């Protein structure tokens, strides 16, 4: 499954991509799969952009989701991620830093990795650029490949879906290039 | 045949003080009452009694008898808490207990033999439970409460009177070993009575005619007969532990050890009753004469003292007391304890202890209103949600579902598959924009980062409205638009205010 290929317990996975590239849908997919397996998940939302309605429609069990809203305070988001990464029992801890990712020192990134390794938490960092660097076990870039509209001509009736290409940027102990997979997100 | 136990704590006032300060168990201790020079000893612990300290001695006389004697004023809060602890300990053995007096509880043992074992085993269990809550108890078991009470007061710490042998067992007990009302013991001596057997041999009516109600009660005790009904005691809705302080506490680090001791005692009681703390009420008596109270609802029920101390420390750090503290009282609202695992094949959720501490720290960091589990409200209004306390141990309704999310018809190639729905990133608040329309459809957008953005494709409008029957109506047309810079937005036109705004971004 995509979740197993992307996330690993005790390691950091970075998902980077531009706006409308499908990175949030990929994160929601991971949260959905983790909650379907009965795990508790946490989402640190730096910019307060998470949409519970579409997440619920995507199949995320919201009762198992701890949502931490940081209202734009990115340093608080990093502190919250550090706290949650040290708490054993969460299947996935996701940090969504949005389009203005904070600076994270190398030492802080490796401290975060150590915390995740000790607690066995799968930590996902989602943003527009890499901030964890070498501490991430896997870095994946999302790229929008095409859109699908339902209807004919220049006046489509509705948005039908979006195809996202997942490109491997970095993987510990493996060649760091190539397209992992193409996935469709439907509306 | 009924079997009843009497659980008795000797020198209860001193035992209650020992429970608050366990280090005093190793030293002779006297609980004293009254202002000097009229201070009198009320009770003494076992070491104090061994040194000859008796109730009624003056403070000076007690110190002469035992120079190393530690004196502490009698504490009503400590006694009340210790008595409740004793009741809780007994309740852990039998559901039917009777509150007799401070430090004395009757326990109905009917039917417990098949569960726990014989009378000796039950007596040992009662004593062990009392020890768990910090009290050293004597236990007597007999067929009647009166005989069990005498058995607990005299003889070894665990004393079982065989069924049917009550009268014979009591007959040898000296009258001087028991406490009698003022005047009654002197009368017994005048009559030449030495043992309970002597008293039981007298006609009951004659004793009653001469000594009144106290004489009748004494005769019943000597015969081992219960006259009154068994009055069962049930648990109170909240559990409280308190400690008065002889000194004023000004700093939080100095308060922590006191809170730690109080919560350890409270948690020991709750553990005996298989309960967990759901919420804590902390009440601080201040040197200014006032009180400060605060309530702390826990994210998850807890049974251990250490995380509760940490949470109270965080709470007090957030709102320090306004004056020096002279007394501390903690009461807990409780829930029955339950297993940590919600379902057999699911991974265990975070331990309640860890989770409660993390949630408290997160609330301190980002505000309590920004932490929780989202709930989608039953409304068509966009972005209708609220936050609820996070409890991952609740049964998971979706976990057993094997349904895939709704799929479309967009996948066309073999190596491409549908992973799930496309989700939104909300703009909160929605960003107002100016829209140029062409044939009623959005064509250009003003108000984003660049001056003018071309709408490459758009789909819509999707019309929605609600609350038109109320004071807060809403009505809007929604469009999905793709801009020339590659972004994909949900655009909304408010039909009431005639304004446009960007609601969310497809990502």
Salient structural properties:
heterodimer; A: 187 residues; alpha/beta; eight-stranded mixed sheet; 5 helices; 8 strands; globular; B: 507 residues; alpha+beta; Alpha-Beta Plaits; Dna Ligase, domain 1; six-stranded antiparallel barrel; five-stranded mixed sheet; 21 strands
Describe the structure concisely for a colleague.
The complex is a heterodimer of chains A (187) and B (507). Chain A is α/β, with parallel strands linked by helices and 187 residues long. In chain A, 28% of the residues lie in helices and 36% in strands.
Description:
The complex is a heterodimer of chains A (187) and B (507). Chain A contains 5 helices and 8 strands. With 187 residues, chain A is an alpha/beta fold. In chain A, 60% of the residues are buried. By secondary structure, chain B is an alpha+beta fold. Helix content of chain B is 30%, strand content 32%. Chain B has 14 helices and 21 strands. Chain B has helices at residues 12-20, 46-50, 59-65, 76-91, 113-116, 119-132, 145-153, 166-171, 184-191, 196-200, 204-223, 252-272, 305-318, 352-366; strands at 4-8, 29-33, 40-44, 70-73, 97-101, 104-108, 138-142, 158-160, 238-249, 275-286, 291-302, 325-336, 371-376, 385-388, 416-421, 424-438, 441-446, 452-466, 474-483, 488-494, 499-506. In chain B, helix 12 (252-272) packs antiparallel against helix 13 and helix 13 (305-318) packs parallel to helix 14. At the A-B interface, helix 2, helix 3, strand 3, helix 4 and strand 6 of A face helix 14, strand 13, strand 15, strand 16 and strand 18 of B. Strand 3 of chain A pairs antiparallel with strand 13 (371-376) of chain B, so a sheet runs across the interface.
